[in-house]
Design brief:
Elements lengths: L5 H31 L5 H46 L17 H41 L5 E5 L5 E4 L1 H10 L14 H13 L4 E7 L5 E8 L6 E5 L11 E2 L21 E9 L9 E10 L2 E11 L8 H7 L12 H11 L4 E4 L2 H10 L1 H4 L7 E3 H9 L7 H7 L12 H21 L5 H9 L10
Parallel strand pairs: 7-10, 10-11
Antiparallel strand pairs: 1-2, 1-5, 2-6, 3-4, 4-5, 7-8, 8-9
Helix pairs in contact: 1-2, 2-12, 10-12
Length: about 475
C-alpha cells in the first residue's frame, strides 16, 4: 500500500467508503425487512436498496473527484515543487495557487523557500567567486597547452578515456565518433596497447615510444606515459594538423569510477547517456521517414556539448508541407543528404555502450528499429523515456510534453532550435540532467530502481511534442 501513489490511495479510500456504505445500507434493509416480516414489502426494500446503492456510489465518486482535484492533485504538485527546489538548481517562488484550498500550507512552504533561498544566496555567491578564479586558471592552462603540438588522450586504468584534446579528437574521428568515457580500444588496436603497457610494467618504465595501429589501419606514432600504479596512462601521438585548435574534453572524476557491470545495479551517474531526437515526414513510423537526427552525450551527469550528432537525412519521399511547417526542413535542404541507413549506422556507433534517452522514446526508437533486419545493426541499448521520468518527478496528473517539462525545470529552448532534432535533443538532455538530482533525492539512485518506478507510470499515453 505504501508503494501506491497518493492519488491512487485516496481513490481506494473513497471506494472503501462507497462500498462500505453500500454494505451498511444492505445490512440495514435486511434487518428492517426481517423485523417487518411482510413479503409484500420486498419490492419496496429492493427499490430502496437500488436507489441507495446508486446514490452512495455517485456521491462517493463526486466527492472523490472534488477531493482529487482540490486536494490530491495540489498536494502532488506541491510535493513536486518541493523536490525540484530541494534537489535542483531552481529558486523560483512556489506557486501558491496550486494549493489554494489547502489552507496555510502553500504560504508556509513559500516562507520556508524564501528563507532558504536567502541563506543559499550567500553560499552561491562565494562559490561563484571561487569558480570564476578556477575558470581563469583553467583558461590559462588551456592557452599554454594549445601551443604543444601533440594529440593527447588520457585513459583510466581500465582503458576508459577521461580526456582528449582537439588534435586527438581529429585522430579519433578517423576511427569512430570521438567520445568521453568510452574504451581506447574503440579507436586503437587493443593488442598493441596492452603489449606496450605490459612491457612498460616488466621494465618498470614510466615513458615509452609507441607505434600504434588504429582500428581503420592507420598508424600513429608518439609516446605513452604511465601514471602511478593503477592510475591510468597518457597517449601523446603525432597530430594530424599541428596548427588546429585544441579544445579539451575531460572529466578527471572518471579516473576514480569503475566501469559499470550490470546496468540495473549501476548508479545513474556512472552510466553514459545519449539523448536523441528525430524529425520526420509524419507521425507514422510504419510508413514515414526520418529527415533529421540529433543527439548529445551525457557523462558523469554532465552534458558534453562538444560531443553531438547532427545529420540531415534524405527521406526518399516528398516532405509534406504540414511537417515542414513544424520542423522547417524542406525537400531542397535534404536533396544532397544521405539516406537513413548510413546515418543510422553512424548514430549506432555514436550511441555505443550508452543508455539511450528520448522524450516519448517509443516513437523515435520505432524508426531506428525498423531498419534492423535490413542493415543487421540492432539497437539493444537500455532506454529511458523522459515522459515517464516527468511522471515520476511531477506526478501522473501533470502535463508531460517537452515544453511543459522544460518550463517546470526552467530549461530555456531557443525558438530557433525548437522542433529541430539537435535543439530538442539538447532541451531533453538539460531536462534529464535537471531531474537526476531530484530522482536521487527520492532514493532512485540506480538504473534498476528507475526502471521499476517507471513501470508504475507505464500506462501514461505517449505524447507528441
Amino acid at each position: 500500500m505504501k508503494d501506491l501513489s497518493l492519488r491512487l490511495r485516496v481513490f481506494l479510500f473513497f471506494c472503501l467508503i462507497g462500498f462500505g456504505g453500500l454494505l451498511v445500507v444492505v445490512l440495514a434493509l435486511w434487518l428492517g425487512f426481517r423485523q417487518l416480516d411482510d413479503p409484500d414489502a420486498m419490492s419496496a426494500f429492493v427499490t430502496i436498496g437500488i436507489v441507495s446503492a446508486f446514490g452512495l456510489i455517485a456521491l462517493a465518486a463526486f466527492v472523490w473527484l472534488l477531493f482529487d482535484e482540490n486536494v490530491s492533485k495540489p498536494i502532488e504538485a506541491l510535493a513536486a515543487q518541493f523536490r525540484v527546489r530541494a534537489d535542483a538548481d531552481i529558486d523560483t517562488a512556489i506557486d501558491a495557487q496550486t494549493a489554494k484550498y489547502l489552507g496555510d500550507l502553500a504560504p508556509a512552504a513559500t516562507a520556508i523557500n524564501r528563507k532558504l533561498g536567502k541563506m543559499s544566496q550567500t553560499i552561491t555567491e562565494t562559490v561563484a567567486q571561487k569558480t570564476a578564479r578556477l575558470e581563469r586558471q583553467r583558461q590559462q592552462l588551456l592557452r599554454i597547452l594549445s601551443d604543444v603540438p601533440i594529440a593527447v588522450i588520457v585513459a583510466s586504468h581500465d582503458h576508459q578515456i577521461v580526456l582528449y584534446d582537439g588534435q586527438a579528437a581529429d585522430l579519433m574521428e578517423r576511427e569512430a565518433p570521438a567520445r568521453l568515457n568510452c574504451s581506447v580500444f574503440d579507436y586503437l588496436d587493443e593488442a598493441t596497447v596492452r603489449e606496450l603497457l605490459s612491457k612498460m610494467s616488466e621494465k618498470k618504465q614510466v615513458r615509452r615510444e609507441a607505434t600504434i595501429k588504429g582500428k581503420s589501419g592507420a598508424v600513429y606514432t608518439g609516446h605513452i606515459r604511465l601514471f602511478d600504479k593503477d592510475g591510468g596512462y597518457t597517449l601523446m601521438l603525432e597530430p594530424l594538423a599541428p596548427d588546429a585548435s585544441r579544445p579539451l574534453v575531460y572529466d578527471f572524476d572518471l579516473l576514480d569510477k569503475e566501469r559499470p557491470g550490470d546496468p540495473n545495479e549501476a548508479a545513474l551517474r556512472d552510466l553514459t547517456f545519449v539523448v536523441f531526437d528525430s524529425e520526420t515526414t509524419g507521425l507514422n513510423p510504419a510508413k514515414d521517414e526520418v529527415v533529421q537526427l540529433g543527439a548529445v552525450r551525457i557523462v558523469n551527469g554532465k552534458i558534453i556539448h562538444s560531443e553531438i550528432f547532427n545529420a540531415l537525412v534524405n527521406p526518399g519521399m516528398p516532405i509534406p508541407p504540414g511537417s515542414t511547417k513544424v520542423h522547417r526542413i524542406t525537400d531542397k535542404m535534404v536533396a544532397d543528404a544521405p539516406r537513413f541507413p548510413p546515418v543510422r549506422a553512424d548514430f549506432h556507433a555514436f550511441a555505443k555502450d550508452a543508455v539511450i534517452v528520448a522524450h516519448n522514446a517509443p516513437f523515435d526508437m520505432a524508426f531506428l528499429h525498423r531498419y534492423a533486419k535490413q542493415t543487421g545493426l540492432h539497437f539493444e541499448n537500455p532506454i529511458l523515456d523522459t515522459v515517464h521520468l516527468s511522471a515520476i518527478v511531477f506526478g501522473g496528473s501533470a502535463e508531460h510534453t517537452l515544453d511543459a517539462l522544460c518550463d517546470r525545470l526552467e530549461v530555456e529552448v531557443p525558438v530557433a532550435l525548437r522542433h529541430t532534432a539537435l535543439g530538442d535533443a539538447m532541451a531533453t538532455a538539460e531536462a534529464f540532467v535537471a531531474m537526476l538530482p531530484i530522482l536521487e533525492g527520492r532514493g532512485l539512485r540506480t538504473f534498476g530502481a528507475i526502471k521499476a518506478e517507471m513501470q508504475k507510470h507505464a500506462r501514461i499515453l505517449a505524447v507528441q511534442d
